[in-house]
Amino acid sequence: MVLTVGIIPFLGLIIPNIISLFKGDNLAKTLPHTALLGMSFLLFCDILGRVLIFPYEIPISMTVGVIGSAIFLFMLFRGGEHMRNRTKMFILLGLAVIAVVLYLFWELNGNYHYAFPRRVIKVVAMALTGIAIAYSTVVFQTITHNRILTPSVMGLDALYMLIQTCIYFFFGSTSILVINIYYNFTLAIGAMILFALIFYRVLFKEGKRPIYFLLLVGMIVGTFLGSITTFFQVLIDPNEFLGLQSKMFASFNNVNSDLVWLAGVIILITFVYGARHMNQLDVMSLGRDTAINLGVPYDKLVQRMLILASILIAVSTALVGPITFFGLIVANLSYQYFRTYKHSILITGSCVMSIVALVGGQWMVERLFSFTTTLSVIINFVGGGVYFIYLLLREVGQQDDTSQRNYEVFW
Questions:
Q1: Phi/psi of residue 206, each to 5°?
Q2: N- to C-terminal Cα distance for the chain?
Q3: Mean pLDDT of the chain, nearest integer
Q4: What are phi and psi of 226, to 5 degrees?
Q5: What's the Rg (C-alpha) of the chain?
Q6: What is the DSSP track for 41-84?
Q7: 2: pLDDT strictly greater than 60
Q8: Among 142, 284, 291, 295, which is most buried by a count of CB atoms within 10 Å?
Q9: Half-sphere exposure of 38 toward its Cβ, with a 13 Å CA cutoff?
Q10: CA geometry: angle 387, 66, 9, nearest 5 deg
Q11: pLDDT for the residue 408
C-alpha cells in the first residue's frame, strides 16, 4: 500500500481506537466498521484537501496527518487517566520518532548528500532548543509555585533583543559581530548569563527575599529593556532594520552546525548538573517551610536552579532566537498529561513534547505554509493567544469553585 499511495500517517493508529471506543474489542464485530470508517475518513480528507485551496490540492497524506494528529492527541489526553506514566512516555517517544522520521525523509527524493545533513542539523537544533526551554520552564514554575510564569519574565529575551538591536544600531549589519556568528553567539550568551548572575547576586545579597519580589523586579527590568530596544529600533536605519528582523523571531532555517554542537555541550553539562537535584525539586514543590523542615537547603537551591534556568534560556535564545510562550505550553501539557509530582517524569515528558511540537510544527511551516510564516509566530499565537488565556480562565474558575465551596461550608 505504501508503494502504491505513499505514507499516510496516523490512519492505522486512530481508526481502530475510535471504533473500539464505541464497539468494544470484539474483532468480528469491529473489523467491518473499521474498514468502513477508514474508507470514509480517507474520502473526507481527500475532498477537504481539494476544496480548501481549489484549484490546487493539498496532498492527502498531509491532510490525514494534521487531522489525525489532532484526533490522536484528543484521544491521548482523554484516556490518559487510566494509563501508567511509563505507557504514556512510550507513546510520546513514538510520536517524537514519527515526527522526526517524517521531517527527515518527507519528499527527500534521494537527496542524501545536501538536503539530509541540513535536515539533521535542524532536528538536532530543535531538540536542543525544546529540551532547554522545557527543562528551564518546569524548574522555574516549581520555584515560583506558579504554572503560568516562564523564565522570560526575568527579562532575558528582552536583553537578547537589546543586544542585537545595539549591534545593528551602533556597528551596522557589516560589523564582525553580525557577520561572525561565533562572536554574536558568544556575546549574547555571555551577556545574558552575566546579567542573570549580577541580577540574582544583587537581589539575594540583602538576605531572604520573597520570590515574588524577584519576579516583580525582573518584569520591571524586562519592560525597561524592551522600551530601550523599541527606542533604538525607531531610530535605526530602515536597511539595517531589515537585517535585524531576522533576529526578532526564532528560526531554524539557518542554524550553524558548529553552534549546534557547542550549544549541545553546554545544555548537556547543565542537564547533568540539574539531574542531581531532581529529588530536591520534588520536595521543593511542597513549599518553602516544608522543604526546609525536610532538610532541603531551599534558598541555595533556588539560586542554583534560577542560574541553571537562565543558562538554558540564554543558550536556546542565542541559538535560534526568542520563543516566548513555548515553555508555557509544553510544561502545562506535561502537568495535565502525567499528573505526578515527580520532576524526573514531568521534565522528561515536557522535553519529549517539545521535540514533537517543534519538529512537527517546523514540518507544517515548510510543507503546509510554504515558509509564509515562522514557527515562533505559530507558537506565540497558540501559546499566548489561546492556551495562555485558557490557563488564566481555568485558574479563575478554580478559585471561584474554591470560594463557593468555602462559602457553603461556612454556612
A1: -75, 0
A2: 67
A3: 78
A4: -65, -35
A5: 24
A6: HHHHHHHHHHHHTTTS---HHHHHHHHHHHHHHHHHHHSGGGS-
A7: no
A8: 284
A9: 16
A10: 135
A11: 47
